[in-house]
Amino acid sequence: MHQLLQDMGRQVVYEESQNPEEHTRLWRHKDSFNILRDQTGSIKVKCLILDMKMLKKNNIPATNIHSRPRFFWNPTYLAQTNPNDEFLETVAFKGMHNLRLLKLSYVKLFGTYDVLESLKILNLSHSINLVETPNFSNIPNLEKLVLKNCLSLAEVDESLATLQRLIVLNLKDCKSLRKLPTNIGMVQSLEELIISGCSNHVGAVDELVKLKSLKVFLANYTNLNQLLSAAHEVEVALSHMLSFPNWITKLNKNPKIISFVCLPSSLVTLSLASCNLSDDAFFNDFGSLPLLQNPFLGGNPIRSLPHFIRYLARLKRLDISWSP
């Protein structure tokens, strides 16, 4: 959306009432903070955005920030390197029964999520202290989950599988993340999965292939030798799908070969930029991804045009730029 149109829309919202509690959308960090601190949010609120780092840049006095129990410091956290992240009790959202979009930065939610059951978009990016996600069973209507740059996040709760309306899962730059839920394949609605920058991630091939609605898979700057190339995982996936004994032989000889048959055939966009992939990392047969239109392989040591291009009947854009 053009910035001017966005600003005009926000001005219309703020002309609804002089009281921020009556606004349907809260973009001003100070207003959002005051409403959460005082627990005065109403049923009218549909969108709330709060960035504690930006709020403190506006020189909000510390006595205001910590004057109510909704926001509090954790003594253990004070020893950490990022002083911007704060803890917030979920009870602060108790009156916002129609809240659809919640975006919190440098804030860690504390408490049960049953007060957020109407949420469709949850963005907890830059929550430095977030180690594991909450139980998602209390927010069944969630369609978009964004957890970018949650540097301490090591685990995504298995209850993610209960989110049967989830379309987007963004875990970009969650560098401590070791794995996705073992049952992520049950999220049949998922269309976009982003794990770029998750350098410690170990993938579950047999689960990825079960994501029948997945159209976009972004895995830039990841360790694909762990994510897609473990020979024993590939063999398991292939045995359930197709019978290609010659491909199994190739895998055993060269475990760095990427097995695209372990990805869902529904993929339209696949990005594996800067994953240290060379010419011999790809199978010649690319028929397992018949809908693929946009493969992004830039930043890899590819010396020649990949042979698999001939199999991509719907190819629109191939990016192998910045190859050493």
Key attributes of the depicted protein:
13 strands, single chain, 19% helix, 324 residues, 8 helices, three-stranded mixed sheet
Q: How many runs of DSSP E, i.e. beta strands?
A: 13
Please report the number of helical segments.
8
Low-confidence stretches: 62-69, 73-81, 229-253
Percentage of residues in DSSP E strands: 5-15%
Q: What topology emerges from the helices and strands here?
A:
Blueprint: H1 3-14, E1 25-26, H2 29-38, E2 47-51, H3 52-57, H4 62-65, E3 71-72, E4 86-89, E5 101-105, E6 107-110, E7 121-123, E8 144-146, E9 168-170, E10 192-194, H5 205-208, E11 216-218, H6 224-227, H7 231-241, H8 245-253, E12 269-271, E13 294-296
Describe the protein.
The protein is of the alpha/beta class. Helix content is about 20%, strand content about 15%. Strands 1-2-5-7-8-9-10-11-12-13 form a 10-stranded parallel β-sheet. It has a 3-stranded mixed β-sheet with strand order 3-4-6, with no helix packed on it. Helix 5 (about 205-210) links the parallel strand 10 and strand 11 (about 215-220). The longest helix has 12 residues, at about 5-15. The two termini are about 35 Å apart.
Short synopsis of the structure:
The chain is of the alpha/beta class and 324 residues long. It has eight helices and 13 strands. It has helices at 3-14, 29-38, 52-57, 62-65, 205-208, 224-227, 231-241, 245-253, and strands at residues 25-26, 47-51, 71-72, 86-89, 101-105, 107-110, 121-123, 144-146, 168-170, 192-194, 216-218, 269-271, 294-296.
